[in-house]
Design a protein that fits this description.
The complex is a heterodimer of chains A (about 200) and B (about 150). Chain A is of the alpha+beta class. Chain A has four helices and nine strands, in the order H-E-E-E-E-E-H-E-H-E-H-E-E. Chain B has two helices and twelve strands; from the N terminus they run αβββββββββαβββ. In chain B, strands 1, 2, 3, 4, 5, 6, 7, 8, 9, 10, 11 and 12 form a twelve-stranded mixed sheet that branches. The chains are: A alpha+beta (about 200), B alpha+beta (about 150).
Chain lengths: ~200, ~150
């Protein structure tokens, strides 16, 4: 009796040590449509030195201090991956030259956007204003933020709860159509809205 | 009279300060929750549910039947599997410049990650720590599984 308890304890200890030694694993999955697979870098936890990377889809490595990439079966994590919230839905609204006045076709987009909010539980709305390269960087930061606030107000008038909406301006940092400085470009005068 | 104006002004300042702090504190929100799933915030335990806002140092825990789906302000997304403990240890993101960094600690269970704007614009700034390792996302979708 005593002996079997001892044997059990030894097995439990061995299993625990094995578990510690493996420390778990990391698997790089296929990218979502339109994205790159990218990579996962593994570092030594103590000094932060890079010890290896996973850079092919559906490969994995144990987390035991070494990187040995081997093929992994992503179906193991199918349920987990299904629990990921779906990617944000993106909408773009355009403005008339140098103004915060919306282009005529933007009304339809506002309505589609509100329908998307209604479809998503716990929805949030990220409103990001952009400008073209006419004017100074500072002025464009201000103008882009004004455009974002304009859209937030327009959505508020149409029933959106302001507590779930964030408005920010990115100025001329993210041009849709890349131009030289000082170029009036309608596709760059826009607000991008992500519903997530 | 003057005193009143001053104190009203101070009140407004405090109110403005508080509301800014409130906004800055939100790093993400829960989108889906299944089974036993909670957010531990200090000594408080909040049931995970769609719309619950998340802040730095929040701890997500799930039971045998639990799962949580969440999104962050940089558009990254997480799914937390059953029997998990995940700490949102650090998270900074400037939504004008897109500069930022994050550190997520997986103590146990599995975590699926789709990285967002932080990983896109800041090399190795999206880190995940497990009991035996430190990882960085370089623009990707991956699963960390801690036994």
């Amino acid at each position: 009796m005593r002996r079997s308890v001892k044997a059990g304890a030894i097995w439990a200890l061995a299993a625990l040590l094995a578990g510690c030694a493996s420390g778990g694993s990391v698997m790089l999955l296929d990218a979502e449509p339109g994205a790159d697979v990218g990579a996962v870098a593994v570092f030594a936890p103590k000094d932060g030195a890079e010890i290896g990377v996973l850079d092919k889809a559906n490969t994995e490595t144990r987390l035991n201090g070494r990187v040995q990439a081997r093929p992994g079966d992503p179906s193991r994590y199918a349920t987990l991956v299904d629990s990921l919230p779906k990617p944000g839905a993106r909408f773009t609204l355009y403005f008339l030259d140098g103004s915060t006045q919306l282009s005529p076709e933007s009304e339809t987009v506002l309505q589609q956007l509100l329908e998307e909010v209604a479809r998503r539980p716990g929805a949030e709305v990220q409103i990001t204003g952009h400008t073209d390269t006419v004017g100074s960087v500072d002025d464009n930061d201000t103008l882009s933020r004004q455009r974002a606030l304009e859209i937030r107000a327009a959505l508020g008038e149409r029933g959106l709860n302001p507590a779930i909406a964030r408005a920010v301006g990115r100025g001329e940092r993210e041009l849709l159509t890349v131009t030289a400085d000082g170029v009036s470009e309608p596709t760059n005068r826009r607000v991008e809205v992500t519903v997530r | 009279m003057r005193g009143t104006i001053k104190s009203v002004g101070l009140g407004l300042l405090i109110a403005a300060g508080l509301s800014t702090a409130g906004l800055a504190a939100e790093i993400g929100r829960i989108k889906t929750a299944v089974g036993s799933a909670t957010v531990q915030r200090g000594t408080a335990s909040i049931p995970a549910a769609p719309g619950v806002t998340l802040g730095v140092k929040d701890v997500l825990t799930t039971g045998r039947d639990g799962r949580i789906g969440l999104t962050f302000v940089d558009n990254s997304r997480f799914a937390v599997g059953p029997n998990a403990r995940v700490v949102l240890a650090e998270f900074e993101f400037d939504d004008t410049t897109h500069k930022g960094r994050s550190l997520t600690q997986v103590d146990r269970g599995s975590l699926a990650i789709v990285s967002g704007q932080i990983a896109k614009e800041n090399r190795d700034a999206v880190k995940v720590r497990t009991p035996t390792s430190l990882l960085a996302a370089r623009g990707t979708r991956f699963v960390v599984d801690v036994k």
